[in-house]
Amino acid sequence: MELDIQCEEMSPSRWAELLTTMKSCKTIRLDDCNLSSSNCEDLSSIINTNPSLTELKLNNNELGDEGVEYLCKGLLTPSCSLQKLWLQNCNLTSASCETLRSVLSAQPSLTELHVGDNRLGTAGVKVLCQGMMNPSCKLQKLQLEYCELTADIVEALNAALQSKPTLKELSLSNNTLGDTAVKQLCRGLVEASCNLELLHLENCGITSESCMEISAVLRNKASLMDLSVGDNKIGDSGLALLCQGLMHPSCKIQKLWLWDCDLTSASCKDLSRLISTKETLTEISLIDNNLRDSGMEMLCQALKDPRSKLQELWVRECGLTTACCKAVSSALSTNKHLKVLHIGENKLGDAGVELLCEGLMHSNCNIQSLWLGNCDLTAGCCATLATVMATKQCLTELDLSYNPLEDEGIRKICEALKKPSCNVQQLILYDILWSSEVDDELRALEESKPEVKIIS
């Protein structure tokens, strides 16, 4: 049994009602429910008396250190079988880390700990690392994003990594680590016996200086499938170093996020080689890099390579125009694997989207999710888009936000949605002006086709 409630104010009567339900739940999720430390006292009792409970998710509640102390009393009982604990943005400080250390040391069932968006600080996380080093700890996933960590944390983390072969996922994004610390961390990861599958280092103050060490992790950890170094100024020179590791035969990367990394079209030669030859790579994000049309054309050539198995390409806000759309269309008509294309916030215009639609209509194209927000589109391209919607049953999600489509364009899109052959289930239309009459038509459409969700 699963309890999944979000964004609900808990009255005493409602809370009492839920407590009865929780006694037999395997999963309890109560994000954004205005819970406090007093609720944690009740939850501690549930943890103690419900041995089937394996997941507890309490993100975005004002639990505080006192609340975590209550929870940990339940977590430390012999009957507890909890595996996943989510406490993101719960107003915790380093004071909670001593209590959580006790749980890590004593509770081998706990395999996931998510404590990001809390002011734990370096001192607090050092205490958590002590708990990880206990032989009883079997932690597999540790999420420490936005925890106000500094470079001083790396020595403790490396010591924990050396003793924790079970660890598979480590998220340290949005902490002020810097190159020296990241290089030290990577050297520790190479030496550690853990089979790391996910490493997230977004916005950690990384430059090209760290990329050789990150590349070494990619070469030496065949288990690593998910790497995110977005929002770091690695530049073209850093990307070239990363690609040395990414192209190594032992690297089995599947998901690569390089958003806002100061890349230019100069990086696209290396990226194209990666996309065309690394058959494990299924998802790449290049959002907010100045690739321009010339860079996109190189990527499209790679997508046409039969060896490319890419399923998701994110190139939002990359300085693209109508000029690259013929190449994108050609790639869409050739690549059978691509399912998600985020190409919004580029000046494609109606003419560019008309070209894209030629590729989308091809029998080889299997696009499921297409994002065209803020692409300078008008009603002029909506008839062609409507044809794609009504014809391509694989297309289930379409984003047209921030485009001046007006009543004429929205009506054409609505006509496509009404057709039985249209399989679009989510239509995103943020910040588009239309009349009250069209608004009524949209609401009527949602009522007649409840499987369709229109987000505006």
Automatic annotation (TrEMBL):
Coiled coil stretches, renumbered: none
GO cellular component, one term: cytoplasm
Keyword Ribosomal protein: no
Main subcellular localisation: cytoplasm
Pfam families noted in UniProt: LRR_6, LRR_RI_capping
Domain of life: Eukaryota
Oligomer and partners: Forms high-affinity heterodimers with RNASE1, ANG and RNASE2.
PANTHER family: NACHT, LRR AND PYD DOMAINS-CONTAINING PROTEIN 12 (PTHR45690), NACHT, LRR AND PYD DOMAINS-CONTAINING PROTEIN 3 (PTHR45690:SF19)
Protein name in the entry: Ribonuclease inhibitor
Taxonomic source organism: Pheucticus melanocephalus (Black-headed grosbeak)
Gene: Rnh1
